[in-house]
């Protein structure tokens, strides 16, 4: 019964980023800010920078893996980007200049070119509150306002049954929790505006720990924060005690848990199906596969030789976009990765329309850990990792001796930057119930979207266009 009872699906996504530096800004600013420093133009440029980083960083992470060995290359652009924004406030001039160049945001070197902190704060507030609406960008994909794709039945529009009627319990709203944490050696922190802005705009926690004398206690503190921020999904990010010379560890955690708008099947109806990591002419692997039927946003792009389908979550604030090359294999997906700029992805999503579809998609549980330091160095970001440079201006005044060894004007630099995600996509989550797709049998043949080869995954918050998760999937087994 391949497309039998369709059930509720809740998809939890959890992520932890242990990092220590970056920046983010926007691009050219031609419109005036309002009295609050908010600007649609600046916000659009900041979002575009995050999403373009997803493409360039995704290529670096893929290249570092040796191309043919990686199974998945998923990471969280919004988590990395939010940390970039936070540390931009702390970067000294030379480091800030390098960060802007790496992010292709040189236009923001000029003072007054755009109020980055306030626009970042507004975007993050819209993102974490998960409230429907156009937000500061004032735009949503056209499919958000589309009606049903079902035809009229006996002179009246088909009234699609509400999946919520089949749930044992009321559907809970999407949960989005973004947390930034800065853990500094005791005595280093000062009283600049950075501390206030970190809390007010970036939802950041700043805490002093004693790496020098109590590295074990510092590790416990950071892991406890990680555990709480991911609601227990990631219990620790530091498996060993930090080095006693550590001055700063920056951590970022994203927790996302959403419920599908259109349900996948109950778990008992999922079954193993072949998946082809390098095309159907190469060996396959068997993966547990889910099925669904209904109205889905869809577009076929001859220019990219690929198709895109969206799987919205409740309230249509966040959607999972799957971009699948035609006759997909590893080489075609790499080519698509290079071509899919931030602007191209936005254009592609803008062309989507609701279509009747039958879907086959692999059940996935991915846990990835990356050394972001190496990837970012290949992109040209080097000063933050240079111990001879005074990179960050959040240390105590050089006129006083600190607990960090009594050194005057201590230099902060990044020794490690680790990014870890845990991502699960399943049929059911905590809800139960079933619906049927009999309406599909009364209509024209639907789109058949069978995901059996390598694909790009982009989970996007549509009002802000920010990417929660992004990357290539070659083998979901």
UniProtKB/TrEMBL annotation:
The keyword Signal belongs to this UniProt entry's keyword annotation: yes
A cellular component annotation (GO) from this entry: extracellular space
Keywords: Protease inhibitor, Serine protease inhibitor, Signal
GO biological process: negative regulation of proteolysis
Region forming the signal peptide: 1-31
MF terms in GO: serine-type endopeptidase inhibitor activity
InterPro entries in the cross-refs: Serpin_dom, Serpin_fam, Serpin_sf, Serpin_sf_1, Serpin_sf_2
Recorded family membership: Belongs to the serpin family.
Name assigned to this protein: Serpin domain-containing protein
Species: Anopheles epiroticus
């Amino acid at each position: 019964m391949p497309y039998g009872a369709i059930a509720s699906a809740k998809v939890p996504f959890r992520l932890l980023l242990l990092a220590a530096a970056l920046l983010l800004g926007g691009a050219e600013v031609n419109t005036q800010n309002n009295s609050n420093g908010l600007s649609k133009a600046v916000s659009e440029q900041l979002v575009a920078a995050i999403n373009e980083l997803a493409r360039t960083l995704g290529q670096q992470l893929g290249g570092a893996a040796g191309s043919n060995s990686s199974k998945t290359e998923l990471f969280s652009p919004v988590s990395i980007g939010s940390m970039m924004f936070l540390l931009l406030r702390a970067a000294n001039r030379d480091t800030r200049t390098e960060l802007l160049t790496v992010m292709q945001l040189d236009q923001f070197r000029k003072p007054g070119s755009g109020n980055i902190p306030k626009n970042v704060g507004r975007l993050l507030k819209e993102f974490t509150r998960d409230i429907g609406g156009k937000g500061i960008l004032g735009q949503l994909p056209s499919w958000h306002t589309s009606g049903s794709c079902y035809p009229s039945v006996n002179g009246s529009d088909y009234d699609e049954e509400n999946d919520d009627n089949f749930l044992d319990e009321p559907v809970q709203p999407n949960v989005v929790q973004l947390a930034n944490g800065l853990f500094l050696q005791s005595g280093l922190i000062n009283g600049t505006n950075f501390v206030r802005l970190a809390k007010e705009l970036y939802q950041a926690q700043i805490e002093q720990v004693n790496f020098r004398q109590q590295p074990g206690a510092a590790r416990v503190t950071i892991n406890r924060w990680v555990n709480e921020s991911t609601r227990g999904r990631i219990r620790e990010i530091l498996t060993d005690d930090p080095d006693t010379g550590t001055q700063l560890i920056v951590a970022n955690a994203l927790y996302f848990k959403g419920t599908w708008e259109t349900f996948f099947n109950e778990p008992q109806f999922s079954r193993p199906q072949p998946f082809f990591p390098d095309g159907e002419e190469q060996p396959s692997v068997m993966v547990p596969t889910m099925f669904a039927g209904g109205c889905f946003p869809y577009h076929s792009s001859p220019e990219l030789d690929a198709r895109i389908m969206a799987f919205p979550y409740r309230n249509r604030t966040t959607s999972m976009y799957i971009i699948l090359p035609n006759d997909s294999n590893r080489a075609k997906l790499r080519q698509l990765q290079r071509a899919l700029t931030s602007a191209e992805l936005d254009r592609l999503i803008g062309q989507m329309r609701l279509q009747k579809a039958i879907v086959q998609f692999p059940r996935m549980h991915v846990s990835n850990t990356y050394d972001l330091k190496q990837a970012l160095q290949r992109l040209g970001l080097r000063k933050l990792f240079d111990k001879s440079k005074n990179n960050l201006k959040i240390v105590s005044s050089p006129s006083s001796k600190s607990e960090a060894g009594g050194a005057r004007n201590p230099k902060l630099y990044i020794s490690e930057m680790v990014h870890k995600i845990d991502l699960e996509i399943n049929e059911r989550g905590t809800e139960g119930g079933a619906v049927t797709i009999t309406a599909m049998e009364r209509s024209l043949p639907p789109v058949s979207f069978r995901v059996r080869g390598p694909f790009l995954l982009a989970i996007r918050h549509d009002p802000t266009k920010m990417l929660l998760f992004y990357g290539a999937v070659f083998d979901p087994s």
